[in-house]
Amino acid sequence: MDDLIDVGLSWLIRRTAWPAEGENWREVLEGTAWTVWGILRDNPGLTLAAGNRLFVNDELMVAFNELCLALTRHGFSIGEATLAADFVLDLTFDSMLTHDFLVAGTLGSDPGREPPRAWTANLDPRVLEIITDAAGDGHQRWFAGKLGLALDGIEHQRGA
């Protein structure tokens, strides 16, 4: 089964149109994050199905290495580049994995489905509205906000 997963992952990664390097580090990270997000959006359940095979896939490791090296060409040390790439990709994978879990169980694919009782009983109505939207139709907007926050944090950390 691992071989089948590896072949599928490699095929997806090779057929993906990866973004050009960009004029600055932010474009590099943001473009890569949205590309990965698109792969995961278009292949629901991929993160869960692939599991630990993601981290031993040759094609994915080549893409990760290229991202790290691209960041060094924008002034990052190799340590900063690897940390930033890992951070943004973790955010991307985690965001889609959480969404997959919510669609598979908590919310289902029915957009009119009511949020779970644990949410309605324990969340302030304002928080409930936001988190329900983020888990459903607003997922892309929610990820954009998270990604912006992450990139702003990297920028702040770098003092740029």
Explain what this protein looks like in three dimensions.
The structure is a single chain. The model has no long low-confidence stretch (mean pLDDT 89). The protein contains eight helices and no strands. It has one domain: Tetracycline Repressor, domain 2, CATH 1.10.357.10. Helix 1 packs across helix 4, helix 4 crosses helix 5 and helix 5 packs antiparallel against helix 8. The radius of gyration is 17 Å and the shape is globular. The chain is mainly α.
Record keyword descriptors for this entry.
160 residues; 74% helix; globular; Tetracycline Repressor, domain 2
User: Low-confidence spans: pLDDT under 50, at least 5 residues?
Assistant: none
Let me know the largest β-sheet.
none
Number of helices: 8
CATH architecture: Orthogonal Bundle
Q: Over all CA atoms, what is the radius of gyration?
A: 17 Å
| Average predicted local confidence, pLDDT | 89
Helix content: over 70%
How many structural domains does the protein architecture include?
1
Order of helices and strands: HHHHHHHH
In total, the number of strands is 0
In a few lines, what is going on in this structure?
The protein has 160 residues and is an all-alpha fold. 74% of the residues lie in helices and 0% in strands.
Show the helix and strand layout.
Layout lengths: L1 H14 L9 H18 L3 H5 L7 H15 L5 H29 L10 H6 L2 H11 L3 H20 L2
